[in-house]
Amino acid sequence: MTGSLTDQAAFEELEIRLKAILPEEYQDCYEDLAPVSMGSASLIYGRDGKVAWNEIWETFCDLAMAGGPPHKGKLLEPGSRAEIDAEPVRYREVVEEICRGVKMVAECAAEPSSNPGWVRMHCESPGMAEWLVRAIVIENVSARAEGAVLNLPAGPAYRIEKEIKNVITVVAKTRHYWIEHMWPSQQREIANLFAKMAAESPLVQPALSNHNVQADRHETLRGRIAEAVQFATGLEPSSHQYAGWLGFVCPDVRDAIRMMRALVVSNVLSRREETVLFVPVNPVSDPDGETVVRLLVRTYRFAAARKML
C-alpha cells in the first residue's frame, strides 16, 4: 500500500511539472490535443533576394510538447564530420543562413560552433535554453543545451526550402511560445523547476558523435538499455538507427506522447516518431544507462497503473 501511495504521489508530481512548463492555454487541455499539422508555410523573399525569415509565419501549430504534431516526422540530424569535410564551402553557406535566420526570428545572437555540425544560439538565460531544447527535440529537430547556449544542427546537404527552413521554423515556433505565451514570472518558475530537477538528476541528452565516444561503446550501451527496458516493461526496441538515440515501440501514438512528456519532466530528453518513443544514449553522462532505464521503467509503470497502456 505504501508503495502505491508513493507511486501515486510521484505520478502527480510529474503532472504538476508538466503543467508548470506548458503555456497556460495548454495546462488543462493537453490530453485532448490531436497531433494534426497545419501544413507548411511558403518562403517569402526580400528585395535582396534572400529569405525574409521574420515575415513567413503569422501563427504556428500546437507545441509537440503539449501533444501537437512534431514539426518533422523523422529526426533532423546534424551533418557528419565526413560530410562537412567533403563540402566545406557549402557547409559554411548553410551555417551562415541558419545564423541569419535565427537572428531574424529569435532576436538572439547566433554563430558557428567549434563542434562540426552545429550552430550556437545565445539565449537570454539558461532557463530559456533548457526549455527550448526540450521543446525543439520533441519537434524532431536535433538540439543541445549548454548553459544559456542552444546548439542547433547544420549540414552541407541542408536545403533552403527543407532542412534550413526546418531549423529556423522550430526556433521561431518555440521561441514564440516561450516569449509570447508565458509571463516572465512563469519563465522564472520554470528555471527554478529545472534547477530542482538537475539537483535530483542532471539532464540526459544524446551523446555528440564527435565527443570521443567510440562506436562499439555506444552500441554496447544501446544493447544494455534495450535489454533492461524490454525485460522490465515488454517494450520492444525499434529498428531505427540514430546517433545518440534508442527507440521503443509503444502500443499507440497517445501512449508514446504521454511517456515522452513524463520523461521530459524527469530530466531525460525524449521524442517520438509515430508510435516509437526515443530516449537518449550517452556513454559520457549516463555511462551505464542506469538513469534512462530507471526513469523509462518508472514512466511505463506509472502509465500502466493509470491504465494508459
Q: Helices and strands in order, then pairings?
A:
Elements lengths: L1 H20 L59 H6 L1 H19 L3 E3 L5 E5 L3 H13 L5 E3 L2 E5 L9 H18 L3 H17 L14 H19 L2 E2 L7 E5 L3 H12 L6 E3 L2 E5 L9 H16 L4
Antiparallel strand pairs: 1-2, 2-4, 3-4, 5-6, 6-8, 7-8
Describe this structure in words.
This protein has 309 residues and is α+β, with helices and mostly antiparallel strands. The protein folds into 2 domains: 12-200, Aspartate Aminotransferase, domain 1 (Alpha-Beta Complex), CATH 3.90.1150; 215-305, Aspartate Aminotransferase, domain 1 (Alpha-Beta Complex), CATH 3.90.1150. 45% of the residues lie in helices and 10% in strands. The protein is built from 9 helices and 8 strands. The chain has helices at 2-21, 81-86, 88-106, 126-138, 163-180, 184-200, 215-233, 253-264, 290-305, and strands at residues 110-112, 118-122, 144-146, 149-153, 236-237, 245-249, 271-273, 276-280. The chain has a 4-stranded antiparallel β-sheet with strand order 1-2-4-3, covered by helices on one side. It has a 4-stranded antiparallel β-sheet with strand order 5-6-8-7. A hairpin with a 2-residue loop joins strand 7 (271-273) and strand 8. The longest helix is centred in the first third of the chain and has 20 residues, at 2-21. It is globular and about 60 Å long.
